[in-house]
Amino acid sequence: MKYLHTMVRVSDLDASLNFYCTQLGLRELKRSENERGRFTLVFLAAPGDEGACVELTYNWDPETYTGGRNFGHLAYQVDDLYALCSRLQAAGVTINRPPRDGHMAFVRSPDGISIELLQKGGPLPPREPWKSLPNIGTW
Amino acid sequence: MKYLHTMVRVSDLDASLNFYCTQLGLRELKRSENERGRFTLVFLAAPGDEGACVELTYNWDPETYTGGRNFGHLAYQVDDLYALCSRLQAAGVTINRPPRDGHMAFVRSPDGISIELLQKGGPLPPREPWKSLPNIGTW
């Protein structure tokens, strides 16, 4: 038995690829378009960790996706939490839970999927501006 | 960067462990209880695939968890899709999307998390009773 992927639905494929790939750092592995079902599937994974994917389902007929409480978040270990949060912030992504402790941050995808980012190898030394930043919203 | 886990909230820890471990076949790797936060975290993974977890969050204060459309499902590759579906069905789990094609099935966790089960190595030959079973509900 093997974990393959977590599927999330996305309302704007370009905005989601910008978030998950350009900003977050995942890479597109595979894409398939289904004319009859009117949907596109895109599989993403962290570089070097291609066994565990996120599957983006983009239904061509517009729908606004909201969340429920049974799903919590996707979690990734990252090499440099501060550098990643700076990049995300510069790209306009809200850092809902800033990495005040050098250990953990939370952001949300364009469709409200909560993403936990955890520093590889244990917490970095707490550092401004992160140390003083308040939480924004929920995650 | 590395995928760590998908977190889901569970309203009944015993029922969820029965579903994810006893029925589905995941194993508990780690458990922590937080008295102050009044929650328990349990990390599960498929045997031999411990790098990719499901994190169950059990909040001690009761809450009913429902789903949203932005999260789709968790997907696992399994060794014998028919055997697993038989075991799940015998345990009272609804097979929402029976493996009519020998390739794919969908079930739901006690809190409505959709789980996709995919046959390892490609589809098995279609076989009764699965071949004739209708869908039940949504997944």
Short description:
The structure is a homodimer of 139-residue chains. With 139 residues, chain A is an alpha/beta fold. Chain A has helices at residues 13-23, 81-90; strands at residues 2-9, 27-34, 39-46, 49-59, 71-78, 104-108, 114-119.
Task: Report what the structure shows.
The structure is a homodimer of 139-residue chains. The first copy, chain A, has 139 residues and is an alpha/beta fold. Chain A contains two helices and seven strands, in the order βαββββαββ. In chain A, the strands form two sheets. In chain A, strands 1-4-3-2 form a four-stranded mixed sheet, covered by helices on one side. A three-stranded mixed sheet of chain A has the order 5-7-6. The radius of gyration of chain A is 16 Å and the shape is globular. Chains A and B meet through strand 1, strand 4 and strand 5 of A and strand 1, strand 4 and strand 5 of B. Strand 1 of chain A pairs antiparallel with strand 5 of chain B.
Taken in chain order, the helices and strands of chain A follow as: EHEEEEHEE
- Helix amount of chain A, in percent? 10-25%
Beta-strand portion of chain A reads 35-45%
Oligomer: homodimer
Tell me which protein chains meet in the greatest interface and how many residues each side has. A-B, 44 and 44 residues
What would CATH call the class of the largest domain in chain A? Answer: Alpha Beta
Q: What's the arrangement of strands in the largest beta sheet of chain A? A: 1-4-3-2
How would you sum up the major sheet of chain A? Answer: 4 strands, mixed
The name of the CATH superfamily of the largest domain in chain A reads 2,3-Dihydroxybiphenyl 1,2-Dioxygenase, domain 1
Measured distance between first and last alpha carbons of chain A: 30 Å
Q: What overall geometry of chain A do the principal axes of the alpha carbons give?
A: globular
> What's the mean pLDDT score of chain A?
97
Instruction: Return the CATH architecture of the largest domain in chain A.
Output: Roll
Radius of gyration of chain A: 16 Å
What's the count of strands of chain A?
A: 7
Number of domains of chain A: 2
Q: Flag low-confidence runs of chain A.
A: none
